[in-house]
Amino acid sequence: MALPVRNNLRSLYRFIQKFNSPKRFLCAAAVKEPTGGGRVFSGIQPTGVPHLGNYLGALENWVALQQRFPSVLYSIVDLHSITQPQDPAVLRGSILDMMASLLACGIDPERAVLFQQSQVSEHAELSWILGCLTTMPRLRHLPQWKMKSKAKNEGSVGLYTYPVLQAADILLYKSTHVPVGEDQIQHLELAQDLARIFNGRFGELFPEPSALLSSTRKVKSLRDPSSKMSKSDPQAMATIRITDSPDDVALKIRRAVTDFTSEVTFEPEERPGVSNLVTIHAAVARIGVDEVLALARGMDTGQYKKLVAEAVIQRLTPIREEILRLRADPGHLEAILARGACRARELATPVLREVRQRVGFC
Questions:
Q1: Catalytic residue, candidates 18, 32, 228, 252
Q2: Which of 47, 247, 331, 348 gets the highest tally of CB atoms within 10 A of its CB?
Q3: Is the overall model pTM greater than 0.90, yes or no?
């Protein structure tokens, strides 16, 4: 089938959205099954520009995994994002913001399948099938539900069942490895359980995915180092976003909570504030904690904060500039997302076809 308005990237994107089927649209490049070494899947919600903790804890690892594995899929998981109320216009912009951020951080759409979750409808269908294999008590005890529903004194059905959608995201591509933080381990265990349950009932199909834990220490809030850095933190000074200007970065680090001891040491339990700065410094400078402490010898915390700010600014400035450049051309971002969705469907369609056959739908 000939594509309408070949040179119009926006028309291409709308065309692919309308004809959401690999049978109707031929991708420019086929996605091959991994010949060895496994397949990685991970996702990130489009709920604002990533912060420093996202970058150091997840996105840097994502970039490295492109070199280690023959098949890698990264998804902007917009279906997950609507478990919380979203303004449609803001969400559309946030998807493109996240896409620009991923590219600027080093995700290569030639090496990784980079796509928008909602544009591959197989995710939702497999989630329903897996949900019918999941008990309510199994979901009720997952930590994310306890935390988020307690904070709101209630929770939506989507919030309750979104770990099943996470499992579907992973299993749909027969993923073998999933980069996760420690707080997501129980959700990955649900995916492993559902792979075993499905395989036991309908025959072997899904591998049980393994966790890839990041070696980077968690980046904490600059205002409350007992909590991790968060995009949703109401305190503006608590979070460094990767698009923050050099002046903003310097201000936030200057106001970071420390303590009354002037010496720079690394004692996460006793001195969480200054230890968080050491963690950040070591991560952005790609050096060890001991080397950081050697550089900080003789400095008080005020002087040391300037050193940390310089290191963070040096690391983030090229990323910030690239995000601004990419965000100025939304058509380019939409075209990459469209191609990624097409490549993802090439992998998802035969798996879901097999699932449907085994379940008895066809």
A1: 228
A2: 348
A3: no
